[in-house]
Amino acid sequence: MTDRIPVLRRARVSDHGALVGCVHRWWGDSRTPAQAQELSLLLPRLFLQFFSGTSLVLEDGAGIKAFLIGFHAADNDHEAYIHFVGVDPELRGQGTARRLYTAFFRQAAEAGRTEVRAITSPRNAGSIAFHRAMGFTPEAGNREVGGVPVHSDYDGPGQDRVCFRRKLAL
Fold first, then answer.
1. Exposure of 68 by Cβ count < 10 A (0-12 exposed, 13-18 middle, 19+ buried)?
2. How far is the first Cα of the chain from the last one, in angstroms, to the nearest whole number?
3. Is 1-113 CATH 3.40.630.30?
4. Residue 34 pLDDT > 90
């Protein structure tokens, strides 16, 4: 690996501490330390223990620059799910997340998956726009917020989510 050209690779269990550190640093400008800590709880080690083969890390000689935690559904053979994505703020807007998603789509399609799902907060306009730009369609919810279908209490009381689906071409 050259020092400055980011390389995309499979995630490893040993990446866990570095990924948690990335969440704290990369979201520290938009959240309190306690909120960044809470966000990092979405990345328990078990995701890397059981889904490292479907999760991706982009790194260069200076360290991790982006990551995608995703997996293939265990209960069916046609779905995959993108759980958490992080991109170094210095690389945002440069196609880095698109690169991660495209690689995940390719892996999922090669494994026979025909659909990818993802969720986001209805307050995260940037994420909603990104998912739409990547070909995701929001699923009908039980209400709308700003013209976006929302699933109330999806992740518990007050934890509303926008649920997305994207078909994969085989």
1. buried
2. 31
3. yes
4. no
Residues of each domain in the chain carrying CATH 3.40.630.30? 1-113
More confident: 1 or 141: 141
Is residue 124 a contact partner of residue 163, using CB atoms and an 8 Å limit? no
The predicted model scores a pTM of 0.93
CA–CA gap between residue 23 and residue 36 (Å, rounded): 7
Cβ atoms of 137 and 88 within 8 Å: the answer is no
What tokens were used for 9? 């690779």
Phi and psi angles of residue 39, each rounded to the nearest 5 degrees, phi first: -60, -40
Question: How far is 14 from 37, CA to CA, in rounded Å?
Answer: 19
Which among 69, 105, 71, 104 has a CA at the least distance from the CA of 87?
Answer: 69
DSSP annotation of 10: E
Nearest-angstrom CA–CA distance, 8 and 56: 7
Contact 117, 82 (CB under 8 A): yes
Give the Cα separation of 71 and 95 in Å (integer). Answer: 22
